[in-house]
Amino acid sequence: MDIYDVVIIGAGPGGLACAIKAKELGLSYVILEKGTSVFQGIIDSYPMGKKVYPTIPKGETPPFPDEDLEPSHESVEEYVAKINAYVEKHKIAIQLGEDLQDIVKEEKDFRVVTGQNYYRASNVVLAFGRNIPVDLGVYGDAKTVARRLDNPADHIGASALVLGGGNSAADIVAALSKVKRTADDDTPVYWAHRREQFKVDKEVARDLGEEILLGGNIRILQGAIPVIGDVDKDGVDRLLVGVRSVDYDDGMKLHEGMSFPMKHVIACVGTRGPAPVFARLGLRQEMVGKAGKETKRIVLTPGFQTSIEGIYAIGAAISPAYVVIQEDGTLERQKHVDLIFTAVRDGVQAIEEIARRKRSAS
């Protein structure tokens, strides 16, 4: 069996950037992707027709780390089609349907084990995303609540509820509202967040504002908390969301809520990072954050190498922050924005580090 210079786990922007740079530098490589397509994470998380922006994080400057992977304000469908055409044209080596099971350190290399095969490599880059959904935390069964917008037309004729205060929720709210408006459906789209403040990027806010100006029926629910999942007398699965609590009498409170059929609820309440995967692989993590709110973050060198020499981690897997270990052993928390630009930059830098180490060893 061939021993690759690098096996890349994940065919998202970061993983593809790794492959492109590896090919450019003459390194042997293969991408292993558990999904059925490149950019599976983007396909799963972006609503139909959503534009993909080449957002550059604050403090960074153009150009895009790899121009072939740069979005140009096209729809997600057009963007993924463009990437697939690039992969086919340049014969990027990708194995689909390969779900990572383990990485075993052997004498001189690694054995990367998937559900179907195993691969040997001198280096491994973990370029998978944050795809473990955060639990809604409600009493009762709420497993039927959707986590993405598959077909906006399914919600025509009924009020829809989108949970979450970030970009993904805002994208879905705008997409749903546009479909309803186009179909002359005046049923509203409720956008609910457990906090008072919603946080979205300026491009997302612009799209949402444009939809509102065009007459989209969007209603905001601040401080709205999912309370209970239940089945009503007609056998319909419903989600009750608390929207207001008022002091009533003798310590009692009057709670007001809204109940939605779960088939018209979409929860964009975030995903958890791959800390359990990092722990299983034996990668060093440190607790960081304010007292009482500490979170495990992976420890990386400035070149994105983990505590195990030869294993690297990049992209969404290390967002929203990681811990940098300097040459003198000191640790420093580093913010990491989950953007296409950031993932591509990480991938380029990690492969450059791998190539540099290979040259030094020869």
Report how far apart the termini are: 22 Å
Strand content: 25-35%
Task: Output the helix-strand order.
Answer: EEHEHHEEEEEEEHEHEEEEEEHEEEEEH
Overall tally of domains? 2
Unreliable stretches: none
Oligomer: single chain
Helix fraction, binned, reads: 10-25%
Mean pLDDT: 90
Largest sheet: 5 strands, parallel
The CATH class of the largest domain is Alpha Beta
Predict the CATH topology of the largest domain. Answer: FAD/NAD(P)-binding domain
CATH architecture of the largest domain: 3-Layer(bba) Sandwich
- The count of helical stretches stands at 7
Question: What is the topology?
Answer:
Blueprint: E1 3-4, E2 6-9, H1 13-24, E3 29-33, H2 40-45, H3 76-89, E4 94-96, E5 100-105, E6 110-114, E7 118-121, E8 124-126, E9 132-133, E10 160-163, H4 167-182, E11 189-193, H5 202-213, E12 218-222, E13 225-231, E14 237-247, E15 253-261, E16 265-267, E17 271-272, H6 275-280, E18 285-288, E19 295-300, E20 311-313, E21 321-325, E22 331-335, H7 340-361
Helix pairs in contact: 1-7, 4-5
Q: How would you portray this structure in words?
A:
This protein has 362 residues and is of the alpha/beta class. The protein has 2 domains: 3-132 and 272-361, FAD/NAD(P)-binding domain, CATH 3.50.50.60; 152-267, FAD/NAD(P)-binding domain. The chain is built from 7 helices and 22 strands. The strands form 6 sheets. It has a 5-stranded parallel β-sheet with strand order 4-3-2-8-20, with helices on one face. A 4-stranded mixed β-sheet has the order 1-7-6-5, with no helix packed on it. A 4-stranded parallel β-sheet has the order 12-11-10-16, covered by helices on one side. 38% of the residues are buried. The model has no long low-confidence stretch (mean pLDDT 90).
